[in-house]
Input
Amino acid sequence: MPDGIAAKSLGTLSARERFVRAARGEPVDRPPVWLMRQAGRYLPEYRELRAKTGFIEMCDRAELAVEVSLQPWRRFGMDGVVVFSDILLPLRGAGLELEFSPGPVVARPLAAESDLARLGGEIEASIAATCQAITRLRRELGERAAVIGFAGAPWTLAAYATEAKLSRDLEVLSSLAWREPRFLDRLLDRMVETCVATLELEIAAGADCLQIFDTWAGTLSAERFERFAGRALRAVIERLGPKRPPLVVFARGAAHLLEPLAALGADVVSLDWRVDLAAAAAGIGQRVSLQGNLDPTALFAPLPELARETEALVRAGRAARGHIVNLGHGVLQRTPVDAVATFVRTVQESAP
Ligand code: CP3
Output
């Protein structure tokens, strides 16, 4: 427990400070809360806008991206507002044709080393609206929330760049890793450039915190994670240097990768719902802050049960050096709006 003076100053923390401090493992009054995919189809006001506009167009129009990013914040007052965009948009800047129908499809995926010649480096134009949206959100929100930017990790971007339509077992990318490791290394190097360029542009635009999504890293053994996805993540983090805003790394299905994830140099490791938060707090939670990790399907539980689950999560997170409360993956489409309200409010009302 903080002493009297510290407790008094902690009592005046803004949402933005609370978020950044928890990410860095500094004391806070209560843990900050946000949800991955908090702007999306479970919200009627999102569906209304989306009925008139394609997903990519919504991302590419800064005024719409700002509006959609703010929709969940106006209802629930999360501590973090994530910019409405997608990890795959910068692939357009690398020269790939991208469509959502409704899942992402890359028109001519990269199949061989010679295809790398097709790749360009025009990342800036491909996320210009995202960066404008970050700047406007920062101005509009002031201290009332942290603005979260994000990028896809090299391994996950490489998965979408090589698989026309992603297979659950990542068959195309995984076979490249075994059969053409030199091609894959060169592709990962290009995706490191894409990831770094994206994050640097978002930092320049004013992001308070950054999250790297390595959604598909969990398909790798620990040894092969080090060889491919981990090597590339480390390169990204080294390239960003020490003066960056706090950085979160998320990987799905990565309970076997917690140690390597904690050793990357990020400030926060985001856990999926299958990891026991208390165990992670006792382990890596002394070296990095933790984010997560309520099962997204727990939002279908009766509200009192959801509140109890959320309280238990907040309690377990206290053993880590810092905890950002979140789900273990994105909000599901059929999630009741009331459940998101209960989840956020339960954290907001939790005692230090
Ligand atoms: O978290 C947020 O609220 C910010 C916005 C955000 C989106 N995608 C919006 C989106 C973020 C951070 C992402 C990241 C993303 N996109 C990831 C990594 C995180 C994860 O979920 O594992 C990945 C793998 C993608 C790629 C992607 N984009 C897929 C597989 C899909 C289709 C599946 C789906 O849920 O529809 C998308 C589309 C997408 N990205 C939507 C949203 C709100 C749905 C678009 C719609 O309205 O049709």
Observations:
- Residues 181-205 form the longest helix (25 residues).
